[in-house]
């Protein structure tokens, strides 16, 4: 343990100074030190194929000898490296070596769909841990444990179906509609109670709304967001997942906090159940019962994993939807006016209206999801050699290769959309997208998002409620995107909220 911690420190120092060291130290020392330490950490193993000519005929981004793009990856992170790869891969494919691991960028729609449709025996999120342990999904597993997110094996379709029934059907959403409306109203009203009201950080307000909503839905606890613990924990997890530098100390702290929050939350749920023996089951209990748990007491393994996962997933996506919607509506008053007209033309207390009779509202969220997919890229690790059928030239993907798939590129490249692909025009998605347009904000294939309907409905209800009750003015007009682990804004989006009288 101690040995590992020390090496992390050394490694961090090496990282910060890597460029400098490169200039005045013999390269072989750097290589030996850095590679040795990485191996110690289990970051690199030497089982993958040797690094030359791994993908004949495919453009290769040239890094340093032996290290490949490692210094760049450590210095700037994956998103930067990815954009370099996309820039050189004209046919939708390019690759780079990182020591002797191979990172492939696939950014042509057909190839992306092909890889996302592979069964887990061919490609999975984490890959084989003996061969590959640098997929970000691996860090996520260390932090929040095993979950539906990285689960593989025969049980997964059963678990997915349980989740889909609870969160991705019209019936389940209609049942959650009223409590969502109540929480949205409470949170919208609370905004004007905050001081000063012209500095509300819209993203954390919306994130907190989502946390409260999950708290109520899963655990009968609409106060789940209070104290900011859940929000700050999720921020830390998001940051660590995207960090190329594993930190043994901070990971252990996060795990302890996750366990602590979950223990208290489930404790509260059990108390609620004892006090309200005839109330209908809260969703986490229902999920637990459906996956083998009892009617009281401890949760099933699956429900427990979902609880862990929910500390990280499910609220920031709602917060980002809302944030970007306000950023774009601020720039396009014409769209805001159209939306306000639609809002006042229907009864928004009726589930069916909000769910399916507000085409302009739908188009706005689709356009937001096209331009700013929170999950801007995903990865797959190849487990079994396979020929990529949809590439122009013959390409064989080999075990251990890490495949990066950029949704952001697919969504915003004029190659697949109109020349104005970078501009917010909700009208282009009125009535849906064309089959040949690569629109995948919820992923694609057997691992697509299972909570999307619930999240979108919640985001729509929050936006509608807020606009009905408040005038919202975005303070600055220069917000841009920052590609990090997730897609973020360059700075917090402050809004001024005024109660409509
Ligand atoms: C769980 O929820 C489903 C609907 O989503 C319902 O049909 C089922 O009866 C619930 N189970 C329990 C034990 O309440
Ligand atoms: C909006 O929410 C959905 C569902 O959670 C998510 O998949 C999507 O990435 C989010 N989009 C934005 C722009 O935040
Ligand atoms: C969730 O619902 C949407 C809309 O009905 C559907 O397109 C999507 O495939 C569903 N997702 C899953 C995983 O079932």
TrEMBL record:
Heme binds at residue 449. GO terms for molecular function: heme binding; iron ion binding; monooxygenase activity; oxidoreductase activity, acting on paired donors, with incorporation or reduction of molecular oxygen. Keywords: Heme, Iron, Membrane, Metal-binding, Monooxygenase, Oxidoreductase, Transmembrane, Transmembrane helix. Pfam families: p450. The keyword Protein biosynthesis does not apply. SUPFAM superfamilies: Cytochrome P450 (SSF48264). InterPro entries: Cyt_P450, Cyt_P450_CS, Cyt_P450_E_grp-I, Cyt_P450_sf, Cytochrome_P450_monoxygenase. Its cofactor is heme. The chain crosses the membrane at residues 21-46. PANTHER family: CYTOCHROME P450, CYTOCHROME P450 12A4, MITOCHONDRIAL-RELATED. Belongs to the cytochrome P450 family. This is Cytochrome P450. It comes from Cladonia borealis.
